[in-house]
Amino acid sequence: MSSPEQWTHPEPGAGPAATAAAPTPEQVIAGLRTTSEGGAELTQLLTPEGERIPSAQFDPYVSDVDHEALRGLYRDMVLVRRADRESNAMQRQGQLGIWVPLLGQEAAQIGSGRALKPTDMAFPSYREHGVAYTRGVDFRELLGIFRCTDHGGWDFKRHGFHPYTIVIGNQVLNATGYAMGQKFEGKVGDDDGEATITYFGDGATSQGDVHEGFVWAAVYDAPLVFFCQNNQWAISEPTERQSRLPLYQRARGYGFPGIRVDGNDVLACLAVTRWALEQCRHGNGPVLIEAFTYRMDAHTTTDDPTRYRLSDELEEWKLKDPIERVRAHLARGGGADQAFFDQVQAEADQFAAELRDHVFNMPDPPPDRIFSNVYAEPSPVLEAQRREYLAYLDGFAGSEH
Length: 401
Ligand SMILES: Cc1ncc(C[n+]2csc(CCOP(=O)(O)OP(=O)(O)O)c2C)c(N)n1
Ligand SMILES: [Mg+2]
Known about the structure:
Its cofactor is thiamine diphosphate. Residues 1-24 are annotated as: Disordered. By secondary structure, the chain is an alpha/beta fold. The chain has two domains: 5-11 and 35-360, Rossmann fold, CATH 3.40.50; 370-396. It is 43% helix and 8% strand. The protein is built from 16 helices and seven strands. It has helices at 5-8, 17-20, 25-33, 67-92, 106-113, 129-134, 139-146, 156-159, 170-184, 208-219, 250-254, 266-281, 311-318, 322-332, 338-360, 380-394, and strands spanning 121-123, 196-201, 224-230, 233-234, 237-238, 258-262, 287-292. A five-stranded parallel sheet has the order 1-2-3-7-6, sandwiched between helices. α5 runs parallel beside α12. The longest helix has 26 residues, at 67-92. It is globular and about 70 Å long. The N and C termini lie far apart (55 Å). Bound molecules: thiamine diphosphate and magnesium ion.
């Protein structure tokens, strides 16, 4: 983290705090340039060069991850990145209304998602396509949301993956309530216990909902992993403007553990999330994980990051690429050869072609579908609205529009 004190602690007599708090352009640039280092407190098992760093605390949580398992994690990341890039391109071609890129966050999402058991529950925000993939949600179903033909149609109970939440931080409250329910129903206490994980961004930590979730989860010992992907940006607002402290340290104020993991290290994300989930299963929750990562692309396809961040920052993060370090590790240790990497690439291209084909042929839903699945029980008010809307549309019958 940078030293945000530079603009949060005005010199005595420097004038009104509001004026002193405004950073100069030099301070902003200094702040932005410091975001690529996670600091000494960063938990890392694989360096950006693909070297394995031993860890007495976390190695036991990945003792089963042999070369074959690592190849699986590599494949997961390549596939979701390829699907992400294809979806981004399809938005540019007018086939999707909007896309929310995950580029750069593959390790945080695959590592944490693969740590979950089928009986666990995940509450995502809107960028967690990689987690969705690990929960068995069909990527094609996700694309319906972004083509605006669907509101998120997967069976969230079966997948243990809640619908996407766009309202920043709101899913943290949903997750807290769900985890409290797991506790009240006695599903916590041993290795077979259940746990919940919720995903949110660095910017979301400034929302009241996240604070309330922290408070309730703490006082009820809820089996909840708060998984914060600190991708350094909340649209155009850098993390430095969200907190004086590294985000993981906030947990201490609520009385539960907080840990910062290298979010571009899939092995560390897997290990740390398994550890945190284990704490929760045994009734020692909640836990906050700050996955220190970087949003390599725009916030969404409606955003232009060149207007607010420097390209050298992006270049620095390219050297910490989550996929490349696993590739380097596998290649160096004889865990995979070129034929394997080629085969995964071919598989990813095939996956992307199928997604493209699906999107181009996705039928428009009947207009009144927006009224279905709103309530569990039929609602006369909604039914009246549906009829009114259909009658309104009938008024256009025969016209060109
Ligand atoms: C309550 C609320 N306020 C504002 C917005 C607009 N908004 C959408 S994304 C976003 C930034 C979120 O940043 P962060 O939490 O870091 O998540 P990231 O997008 O980086 O994954 C904002 C302010 C919103 N969706 N909901
Ligand atoms: Mg962010």
